[in-house]
Write a structure and sequence with these properties.
The chain has 275 residues and is α+β, with helices and mostly antiparallel strands. It has helices at 7-22, 38-44, 78-81, 85-88, 117-130, 144-149, 157-166, 171-174, 190-200, 220-243, 253-263, and strands spanning 31-35, 55-56, 68-72, 89-94, 100-106, 137-141, 179-182, 205-208, 212-217. The chain binds Dihydroxyacetone (2HA) and zinc ion (ZN). Keywords: Cytoplasm, Lyase, Metal-binding, Rhamnose metabolism, Zinc.
Length: 275
């Protein structure tokens, strides 16, 4: 099968374009990765090169060693992915130790996988274990309203989760385990990857202060939908705070407990504090 005809490749390309259209990917901002299923690799195996040069990942990910990933390219623009996928995205294979990668397809004019490869792969490693193997998508976007909130809200998991839950009734149902927050750190390296993947053990969403967000999910729809829901909630909070600093009424801790019963979700009590 031709690579561009594979369903997962079409889903990947569509998600890049959806993110661009949301305004989350100025210039080369943001990156996306997908942990490819063995049966999907089987179908495209003939189109994959197996003679690429092994290069260091920059961290160690033994629990996903030997797996294949589709990832966006470093310095590439999301808005160009739909026009020329082969030049802007790639498929990589990890070695048996989970220390090195090689390019098997794509980046046809040269280049490297995303500068955030250590964060993506460490998040994949953690989420694969935490989800029993069902999570396959890691998405990083420069979501405007969430970034704005990192200047005015305390950089605490409890505060971001609770304030965003309060802005839309669907939120606690869409991200019941909450949101983690990483203080400002230098992007691209192993340290921010470790901090993010530590949070991803309990959350599907991590905010990077003054930078953006990481989301994890089972497929493209769920992961894009998660990013979209959190960012929309942040937009409502920004609008609310722009009208007045306090709320006349809101969703209360008891309202959340009642919602949890009817919607069969568990909402950790640490987010339902009295204000
Ligand atoms: O430029 O978003 O965090 C890609 C990024 C780095
Ligand atoms: Zn970024």
């Amino acid at each position: 099968m031709k690579i561009l005809e594979a369903k997962f490749v079409q889903g990947f390309i569509r998600m890049c374009n959806d993110g661009w259209e949301q305004g989350w990917h100025e210039r080369n901002g943001g990156n996306l990765s997908y942990r490819i299923k063995p049966e999907e690799i089987e179908k495209i195996k003939d189109s994959l090169a197996a003679d690429g040069e092994w290069k260091p990942i920059g961290t160690s990910v033994p629990a996903i060693a030997g797996e294949y990933f589709m990832v966006t390219g470093s310095g590439k623009y999301f808005r160009n992915v739909i026009l020329d996928p082969e030049e802007n995205i790639c498929i990589i294979e990890l070695d048996k130790e989970g220390e090195n990668y090689r390019i098997c397809w794509g980046l046809s004019n040269g280049g490297r996988p995303t500068s955030e490869l250590p964060s993506h792969l460490m998040n994949h490693e953690v989420k694969k274990a935490a989800s029993g193997g069902t999570h396959r998508v890691i998405y990083h976007a420069h979501t405007t309203n969430v970034i704005a909130l990192t200047f005015v809200l305390p950089l605490k998991d409890e505060v971001f989760t609770r304030e965003l839950w309060e802005m839309a009734t669907e939120c606690p149902v869409v991200f019941p385990s909450g949101i983690g927050v990483v203080d400002w750190m230098v992007p691209g390296g192993r340290d921010i990857a470790i901090a993010t993947s530590e949070l991803m053990k309990q959350y599907d969403v991590a905010v990077w202060a003054h930078h953006g967000m990481f989301c994890s999910g089972e497929d493209f729809d769920l992961t894009f939908g998660l990013m979209h829901t959190v960012e929309k909630s942040a937009e409502i909070l920004v609008k609310m705070l722009s009208m007045r600093p306090d709320k006349l009424q809101t969703i209360t801790p008891q309202n959340f407990r009642d919602l949890a019963v009817d919607f069969h979700v568990e909402l950790p009590e640490k987010f339902l504090y009295e204000k």
